[in-house]
């Protein structure tokens, strides 16, 4: 009876869950996914050429690593994604703060940013090639395009969430409007800002395939696209899984950094 009640406690809305239970749940989720995948292949629901088994994909993954295909191309993709993401953050963070802090700037820029962020990145590939050619600049631009306009609005929203009472208290204590940016706004919005940047980094990875099929000869997107042309589905899935693993590892590292920097938020 106590076991059933303790399990029920884990399912209570917004209740704290022990870390061990979180780890077990994550492991069970992964095993359930792999089990369902294996079962679909074993029952021949989908032909192996379209959905190879987990073991086949694992062998392709190992072969790509052993042949020196996976790691060098993964490093190139990581370099491109981080270059585009950091460029986006350098521009988006101050611009988002200005848009939220000064309403007239927000009114001037927000309609344009809203318009551009709804444009599909693949549709802009021809323009990117016309503007930048087929070199590295085009790939960075496409990754930046898929990240910047989302991030700047998230930064503006993070700034808006800072309670107005914080600024009023600072003004009462003699602070000037510009001083409140460094002493009030940034410290208050920093935890949420870091989460917004972590989420936007994930978006940047979703555009890596699009960016790396533009006259490219390197990167995980190029590897996946080349394997697709020869119907090597196991290598396609191995490349996709590699992107997912890189993203998962990066996300978990950023979560740990967030937890370390803002320990006062955990309770």
From TrEMBL:
Membrane topology: Multi-pass membrane protein
Cited CDD domains: TM_PBP2
Record-annotated ABC transmembrane type-1 domain positions: 74-254
Location (main, coarse): membrane
Domain of life: Bacteria
Keyword set, alphabetical order: Cell membrane, Membrane, Transmembrane, Transmembrane helix, Transport
Compartments, record wording: Cell membrane
The family this protein is said to belong to: Belongs to the binding-protein-dependent transport system permease family.
Protein name according to UniProt: ABC transporter permease
Provenance organism: Acetobacter suratthaniensis
């Amino acid at each position: 009876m106590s076991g059933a009640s303790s399990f029920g406690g884990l399912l209570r809305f917004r209740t704290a869950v022990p870390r061990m239970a979180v780890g077990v749940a994550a492991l069970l989720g992964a095993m359930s996914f792999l089990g369902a995948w294996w079962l679909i292949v074993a029952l021949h629901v989908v032909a192996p050429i379209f959905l190879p088994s987990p073991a086949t994909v694992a062998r392709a993954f190992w072969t790509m690593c052993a042949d020196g295909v996976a790691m060098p191309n993964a490093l190139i993709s990581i370099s491109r994604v981080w270059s585009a993401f950091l460029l986006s953050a350098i521009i988006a963070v101050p611009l988002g703060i200005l848009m939220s802090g000064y309403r007239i700037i927000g009114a001037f820029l927000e309609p344009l940013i809203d318009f551009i962020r709804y444009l599909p990145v693949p549709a802009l590939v021809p323009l990117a090639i016309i503007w930048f050619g087929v070199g590295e600049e085009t790939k960075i631009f496409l990754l930046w395009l898929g990240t910047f306009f989302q991030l700047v609005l998230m930064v503006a929203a993070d700034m808006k969430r800072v309670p107005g009472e914080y600024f009023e208290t600072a003004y009462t204590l003699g602070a000037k409007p510009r001083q409140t940016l460094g002493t009030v706004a940034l410290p208050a919005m920093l935890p949420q800002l870091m989460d917004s940047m972590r989420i936007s980094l994930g978006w940047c990875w979703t555009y890596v395939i699009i960016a790396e099929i533009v006259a490219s000869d390197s990167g995980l997107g190029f590897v996946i696209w080349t394997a697709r042309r020869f119907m090597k589905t196991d290598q396609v899935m191995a490349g996709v899984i590699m992107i997912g693993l890189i993203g998962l590892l990066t996300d978990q590292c950023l979560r740990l950094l967030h937890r370390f920097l803002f320990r006062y938020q955990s309770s």
